[in-house]
Amino acid sequence: MLLTVTTTHAPATDLGYLLVKHPGKVHSFDVPTGTAYVMYPEATEARCTAALLLDVDPQRLRAQRDAFDLGQYVNDRPYAASSLLAAALAKVFRSALRGASKDRPELAAAAIPLEVRVPLLRGTADLATRLFEPLGWAVTAEPIPLEPEIGGESRYLDLGLSGTLRLADALNHLYVLLPVLDDAKHYWVAPDEIEKLLRSGEGWLAGHPSKVLIARRYLAHRKALADSALRRLEIDEPVKEEEDELPVARKASLAEQRRDAVLTALHDVDAARVLDLGCGGGALLTALVKDRRFTEIVGCDVSSRALDQAARRLRLDRLPERQRDRVKLRQSALTYRDDRLRGYDAAVLMEVIEHVDPPRLPALEASVFGHAKPRAVIVTTPNAEYNVHYEGLTGMRHSDHRFEWTRAEFEQWARNVASDRGYTVSFRPVGEAHETTGAPTQMAIFVGNEAA
After folding, report:
1. According to the model, what pLDDT value does residue 238 have?
2. In angstroms, rounded to a whole number, what is the distance separating the alpha carbons of residues 119 and 28?
3. pTM
4. Residue 192 lies in a domain
5. Is the dihedral of CA 322, 325, 326, 329 positive or negative?
6. Are residues 147 and 260 in the same domain?
7. Domain around 66
8. Domain stops at, among 163, 187, 211
9. Of the spans 146-155, 186-195, 224-233, 297-306, which averages the highest pLDDT?
10. Domain for residue 441, yes or no?
């Protein structure tokens, strides 16, 4: 991954003094995830560019697993700017981030013309503009298109920034906001991250119009940490509680309302043996275990890490044997047939289908509705029409969503599946509905024609 900083302040080569890196050399630094290099592709009196190149070693990412076992090898981390690049920036340009320069102290304290380029990072153009423009940057954020035969735009940007700022301010903006745009951290976020955020945000974060969003994303959506950071900034604005997406502010979170709606639907179809497909860390499984009506509960996920989290969340090792025997955790991909999933009363796909690439949906339909063919299937997914009510939300509700459907799109898909696979389908809203945009979550309840 790459980041460049350019200045036209004369003499431009003084950028080397501010960064404490000689323009005539290539500098290398060992970092926990690979090797960082600093070099100068151009260095003249009129214009000087410093490039920070992070060469990520995938084998060093073993501690950072994504949604599947090979996540440390097969992902975009070596290429798309993220907290990995921010961490390298903090190590390599430590003095410049503090605004310290032994050789050019007056220049370090002065605003100079700067251009920043990050040619590949995850995020949306709207969010990039919203984050950087209030800080005095002119923003150019160009979505990177997919290959011509596929068409459309990818989830990645080519980001350009230009403005007249102190170099230290510019680097601190990047240190904080690159992980915010990516909306992910490559390491465990502990309370000491609050200090890093406040130190790097000194002088600009408290007055930023998107400070709540910045605190929440920088602190990995850990509400207690974000609340603490905002209190220390003397901001009397609570951070909304959330699980995987921006929820509606109410006494019961949208995640809780969604689980309750699924439980109600399972009771309505008289299900006792239930599959939780794409169970993740076990949020729904925990609710199912508490209800004695469910005599057999199976959690399935493609990620062994998610299944380990679910086991810990359920405290399977501490449950009485009779309770533990009700629960099974199985690793399985929903786009492939699995005989172990056949013969159940009901299957739940709670906030799952939107994480599947659209070309793979027919495979999911075939394996779940065709091969496993439970007596009932319950599907929930975000209602894209409702997204306008989420303050600060640009794009989709979660960075891993492949699509979000309107009510009409969801109903058309569900009716087609029901017709093709021998089910009847009905629909229910989940969450407080708006008269124009509907509810935040939409639910489809499929019942096999033989059981209807």
Report:
1. 44
2. 21
3. 0.53
4. no
5. positive
6. no
7. 2-187
8. 187
9. 297-306
10. yes
